[in-house]
Amino acid sequence: MSRVGKYPVAVPQGVTVTVNDNVVVAKGKLGELRYEAAEEVVTSLEENQIWVKPRGETKTARMQWGTTRARINNMIIGVTAGFTRKLEMVGVGYKAAVQGSVLKLSLGYSHDIEYPIPADLKIVAPTPTSIEISGMDKQRVGQVASEIRGFRPPEPYKGKGVKYTGEWILRKEGKKK
């Protein structure tokens, strides 16, 4: 069992954190994030460190202990450096372009897919076959990347589709003569 919850979260310089009734608010150079911790844990701020402790020894309290610590750590990283997820498109004619506040995807369907870019995220297409999603909330960045990947997930025979950069696709052998 992981014991990630017992370690404190260090607050770097340039980040202000307030803890009030299990509501943690972090402000940094990229913006402000807020997280409301579960009732099973107690969060406290002591000497530029955030401590998370379970209220009891129940299974739920121990699960929330590590989860809360990880979420707070991701908030601190998010307001200082942010998160980026990169996608690649493999396939003839597959391309992406950002037009204003819309991501336009050509993925081999009879129509282009227009995905509205959320206000809290930044999406760029450095090349026609790659997409970069960046923002300060790790969950939002991952969710949007997953939604875009879901329009045409990679298939196992030719490897065509939208995949994460560095993702390894298990390839299958085709029909034999």
Automatic annotation (TrEMBL):
UniProt-listed Pfam families: Ribosomal_L6
Family annotation (SUPFAM superfamilies): Ribosomal protein L6
Query: Looking at the UniProt record for this protein, which Gene Ontology cellular component terms does it annotate, in alphabetical order?
Result: cytosolic large ribosomal subunit
**Which one GO biological process term can you cite for this protein?**
cytoplasmic translation
Check the record and name the PROSITE patterns matching this protein. Answer: RIBOSOMAL_L6_1
Residues covered by the Large ribosomal subunit protein uL6 alpha-beta domain: 11-82, 90-164
What superkingdom heads the lineage?
Answer: Bacteria
Q: Which UniProt keywords apply?
A: Ribonucleoprotein, Ribosomal protein, RNA-binding, rRNA-binding
Q: Name one GO molecular function term.
A: rRNA binding
Q: What does this protein do?
A: This protein binds to the 23S rRNA, and is important in its secondary structure. It is located near the subunit interface in the base of the L7/L12 stalk, and near the tRNA binding site of the peptidyltransferase center.
Q: Which PANTHER family match?
A: 60S/50S RIBOSOMAL PROTEIN L6/L9, LARGE RIBOSOMAL SUBUNIT PROTEIN UL6M
Name the HAMAP family on file.
Ribosomal_uL6_B
NCBIfam families, from UniProt?
L6_bact (TIGR03654)
Assembly and partners?
Part of the 50S ribosomal subunit.
Record family assignment: Belongs to the universal ribosomal protein uL6 family.
Name of this protein: Large ribosomal subunit protein uL6
In its UniProt entry, the species of origin is given as Pararhodospirillum photometricum DSM 122
Q: What is the lineage of its organism?
A: Bacteria, Pseudomonadati, Pseudomonadota, Alphaproteobacteria, Rhodospirillales
Q: Which gene encodes it?
A: rplF
